[in-house]
Amino acid sequence: MPQTIAAPQLRIPVEPLTQSSFAPFGNVIDASKSAPLRDSSSITAVLKPTSANQGTATKYAHVTRLTNFYDRSRSKTPSQPNISLFVCQPRHLDPSPTASTPTSLFNVSILERHPFTSQTFIPLGTSSSYLVIVAPSLPGSTHTKARSALSPYPTDKPKPTRARSIRELFSLARPEPFTNSGAPPDTLSAAIAGVHAAHRKPAGPGLPDLEGIRAFWARGDQAVTYAAGVWHAPMAVVGDGEAAFVVVQNVSGVAEEDCQEVVLEGRGEGREGVAVELEVGEEGEGRIKAKL
After folding, report:
1. pLDDT band at 142 (very low <50, low <70, confident <90, very high)
2. Taking a C-beta distance cutoff of 8 angstroms, is the pair 248, 83 a contact?
3. Could you give the subunit structure recorded for this chain (predicted)?
4. Residue (of 222, 220, 245, 195) closest to 62 by Cα position
5. In this model, does residue 78 exceed pLDDT 80?
6. Which of 27, 94, 122, 123 is the most exposed place for a label (fewest CB within 10 A)?
């Protein structure tokens, strides 16, 4: 059963979805022609494109990474890559009782995370926009109840304690001991590591840090990868019609290891019980404000 947490009233900006702005939480795959020019840190600007299909296509490799930390799970249940199709209906929007211009409110009442796997949402030919809402994690709690509610979570692998052999020590040396030649730097690997920095390890094990929650407005030609353990709202499509997404992640079938949820309960002034409100203007203008 999801844990319920109290959410104070805060106001946050809603931002356009770009790789640089979303980097702490995962990756953005932007298919628009202007993406490399609009965002200098775009993946397509870092990873060199190559010609493919007899010169009729351009290939951008390593645009995102499917990560798997299930070997660090409590159950040790093996996982496998899973590709799903999500057909999402437009979310219900409430009219704002106070706005002077036509404005609708979207209520976010739940956040979820996948502790052991990344999760990629790829829109399929949709013109609808969607909201991407994420939050960093608080440090892991030592409180027994909180720790139990959020477990299981990836544990650090113990470091080997045995002494290294002379052969192993020499194998780590640079330059190489018998050839006197150093290995050249792997510039592509370095670039990929920089782009996928949020994928190196799971996000922290604690509850979502609501002080750091962020909201993004994503277009239909943008895909998004949530890094392992990143708190995020379920898919929220905004528009007139349904939108389909291909979703790529790892799953083991152990429910509490595949997905964890928290329910947000509002407190303070504002609509009763509402925790996170996104104030959505006319879609064509892309005017969005958010209130937590």
Report:
1. very low
2. yes
3. Homodimer.
4. 195
5. yes
6. 94
